[in-house]
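Support request from a user on the community tier.

User writes: "When I paste my structure tokens into the form, the page sometimes reloads and wipes my input. The last time it worked, I copied everything first. Here is what I submitted, just in case something in the input itself triggers the reload:"
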């Protein structure tokens, strides 16, 4: 029974086409067609065969500037039966973003945690456990809006550490919630268009779960919700040993019935 030929990848097809074009060029040179001059022996010795089946070589499928920098490492590719190089496998590519691991995971030549200057970008650049902290990261009269950068308005030293859009829990809830730092003080802010349902003894929680799931020990009670509509700003203090980045959502919590009216996942 005949063996069904293995389907080539796009890269393998390109390599095969390149090989045949090289062979055609050699034949033109060796035959003297189109005014070309050259020797057949030199043509045959050029490279009709790109590699020997079974041999291997180091490879990297990312940008050359990242190759073998930081945690980025070469992989291996193998010469296949059609004498072309197969896909690169096992290479370690840059991560999308830095962290505070002490390793250069984005392969830019700087280990995470060594960027000592904090900038307004939604990241903890100086690895002190706080995102976009410091009163001097934006010009006077501008507010840090995380990944959106510095924006006009907000006054001096006001930094949006994290924010998110509210979505319904057990009740319809909408608007935006923000965690804001002003100097050494922290606040939870609700936007002008914030709205939730009427309920008994509603509180604003900061919760460590991004989907607003509240347990006995994963939340900080910021304070009572004064109004179910409109703008609000409530100051809070961080518990000992906690960082503001430990909290992943803002939750509107009903104390008597222990239910989530709505939550905003922070980013």
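"...and here is what came back when it finally went through:"
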């Amino acid at each position: 029974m005949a063996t069904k030929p293995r389907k080539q990848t796009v890269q393998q097809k390109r390599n095969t086409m390149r090989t045949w074009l090289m062979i055609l060029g050699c034949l033109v040179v060796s035959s003297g067609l189109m005014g070309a001059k050259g020797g057949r022996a030199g043509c045959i010795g050029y490279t009709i065969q790109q590699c020997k089946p079974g041999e291997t070589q180091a490879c990297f499928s990312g940008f050359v500037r990242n190759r073998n920098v930081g945690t980025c490492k070469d992989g291996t590719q193998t010469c296949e039966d059609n004498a072309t190089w197969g896909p690169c496998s096992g290479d370690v590519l840059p991560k999308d973003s830095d962290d505070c691991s002490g390793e250069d995971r984005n392969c830019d030549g700087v280990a995470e945690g060594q960027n000592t200057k904090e900038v307004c970008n939604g990241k903890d650049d100086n690895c002190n456990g706080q995102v976009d902290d410091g009163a001097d990261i934006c010009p006077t009269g501008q507010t840090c809006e995380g990944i959106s950068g510095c924006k006009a308005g907000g006054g001096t030293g006001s930094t949006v550490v994290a924010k998110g859009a509210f979505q319904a829990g057990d009740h319809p809830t909408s608007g935006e919630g923000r965690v804001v730092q002003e100097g050494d003080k922290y606040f939870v802010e609700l936007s002008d268009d914030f709205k939730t349902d009427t309920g008994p003894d509603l509180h604003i929680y900061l919760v460590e779960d991004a989907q607003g799931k509240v347990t006995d020990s994963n939340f900080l009670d910021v304070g009572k919700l004064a109004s179910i509509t409109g703008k609000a700003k409530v100051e809070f203090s961080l518990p000992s040993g906690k960082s503001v980045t430990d909290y992943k959502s803002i939750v509107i919590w009903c104390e008597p019935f222990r239910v989530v009216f709505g939550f905003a996942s922070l980013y």
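Agent notes: The reload is a front-end session timeout and is unrelated to the input. Residues 10-31 form the longest helix (22 residues). The longest strand covers residues 158-168. Escalated to web team.
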